[in-house]
Write a structure and sequence with these properties.
Elements (H helix, E strand, L loop, with lengths): L3 H46 L1 H6 L2 E2 L4 E2 L3 H30 L3 H27 L1 H22 L2 H14 L11 H4 L5 H7 L6 H46 L3
Antiparallel strand pairs: 1-2
């Protein structure tokens, strides 16, 4: 029968191997995490400074100038920039912690990563419970983009409408007659007849699409949270290995 000392030694060896594997998992994870954060940051800044994307969220009426859903636009930009900045900073910090076997830095990294995981899960739950409001807002946004295209005839806006119409197999607003200009962005009549419900408007199609995608979006956020928690466990195992190595006799 093996002694308790031998069993303890085998457990320590197993934990050390897990710690080494976790180190390289953390390095790879943080590289990917940093790249995704940088992409989010760049995309947010591009939206903010790209003229055509700003025009999509602003409609000038003849009698007054108003900003339709400009708050939505700025909220999306702020989220992308802030989230990207946090991901880049956390990814670089985690990479530094793993590569330099810094126990204190790893513990701090674990705390921030755990908070980010909780936030991801909370956002996923909020996205599911708010799907009706989100669908209605996107329906209103479609209406404003539709009016913007009729007014400015911008090709970027036309491409946006064409994408939405092709994706949802719908075209136009309820109670508004299609103009020849807008018809160019509509899918083929045969496709609309085959795939779309003629009784529904594009706003209703958008709301239905958001409702169908809500579980998928929630799953993505919850899955992301679970992945982050897995990395927290890896960081904790690696930190434990560093602690054992520091206390081992030379």
């Amino acid at each position: 029968m093996k002694s308790s000392t031998e069993n303890s030694f085998q457990i320590d060896v197993l934990l050390d191997r897990c710690g080494v594997a976790c180190k390289y998992m953390l390095i790879v994870f943080n590289i990917i995490f940093t790249v995704l954060g940088f992409a989010s940051l760049v995309f947010g800044l591009w939206l903010n400074f790209q003229g055509n994307s700003r025009d999509v969220f602003n409609v000038n009426d003849d009698d007054k100038k108003r900003s339709i859903d400009s708050n939505v636009f700025h909220t999306v930009v702020y989220i992308l920039v802030i989230l990207g900045s946090v991901m880049v900073a956390l990814g670089i910090f985690g990479e530094h912690s793993a590569c330099n076997d810094n126990k204190i830095a790893l513990l701090v990294y674990c705390v921030f990563l755990f908070l980010l995981a909780v936030a991801a899960i909370a956002i996923g739950a909020l996205a599911y419970t708010s799907k009706d409001t989100v669908g209605r807002k996107f329906g209103e946004l479609y209406s404003d983009v539709y009016k913007l295209y009729e007014k400015n005839k911008d090709e970027t806006v036309a491409a946006t409408l064409k994408f939405v119409h092709g994706l949802l197999q719908c075209c136009g607003l309820a109670g508004v007659q299609l103009t020849e200009l807008v018809k160019k962005t509509c899918p083929k009549a045969d496709d609309v007849t085959k795939h779309a419900n003629p009784a529904r408007t594009c706003q209703q199609s958008i709301e239905s699409f958001i409702d169908q995608c809500a579980p998928l979006v929630t799953g993505v956020f919850v899955g992301t949270g679970a992945l982050l928690i897995t990395q927290v466990v890896c960081a904790a195992l690696f930190s434990s290995k560093i602690h054992r190595d520091s206390e081992a006799p030379q």
